[in-house]
Amino acid sequence: MRIQSKKNWQKHIPGKARRVSRDYYAGHAKKSKIRLRRIIFVILILLLAQSIFQIKLFRLTDIKLVNNEDLFLENIQDLVDQHINQRRYFIFKNNNYFLFDQTALVMDLKNQYNLDQVIITKSFPHSIEIRVQEKISQFIWQKDDALYLLDNQGVLNRQIGEMDEKYLILRDFRNIQPSGEQILSVNELDIVNNIYSSWQEMFSSDPVLQIINLTDDLSTIEAQVKLGYTIKIDSAKDIKEQLNNLKKILAGNIIGLDIDYIDLRFGDRVFFK
Questions:
Q1: Residue 38 lies in a domain
Q2: Helix-strand-coil percent breakdown of the chain, rounded to 5?
């Protein structure tokens, strides 16, 4: 039987420790220096950029709103200022020509003011032009003390602060509250548009139709003219025929009288008070 010269326990004796090369430490130190130089370089670039972006020449100070009809610069000034004063990259202000984020402002203007289109153009060195395309409004919807613009489909455009005589006012006394942006039902819209278009066709000047009252009962529509009196109209009958009777009675001897209302609902028999 052959006897092994090396005992089993000798296998577990560790060998001699390897000498760590000096090149390893030298390489590690070199990498650390490169990393430090890069950090210093980035800091210097940030400081340089900050100094450039803070130059007054490039601060946005000239803001113009063009192609607007109902929307004015003072209406959107707070929103524009909010965007301009925001921070970019947590360091720089957004009021710089080079940093201004026009995409975010476009989205907020569209959403808040219900605009069809918004185009923002920057002009070097400190100007921006906000070109808007507003949704066409036809009515003012008055609910309590609040005023809103509606388009010709009875859809809500946006809230306004005061009356504008160029729009027909729809004064809402309905108990049923509209849901969403569709303020007028199809039936209500048909009646309002029929009265409005027929009035424009029959009367070129006075009396000027100013207000139509909306109630839960659509059978009788009360319209108010600029002179102050009310016209009562039967929505189920021919609107033009009723307005033609109004035209006849206005051509008679009631001019100058203190009129409260004129009732057109009974055919050729027109009543007034």
A1: yes
A2: 35, 25, 40
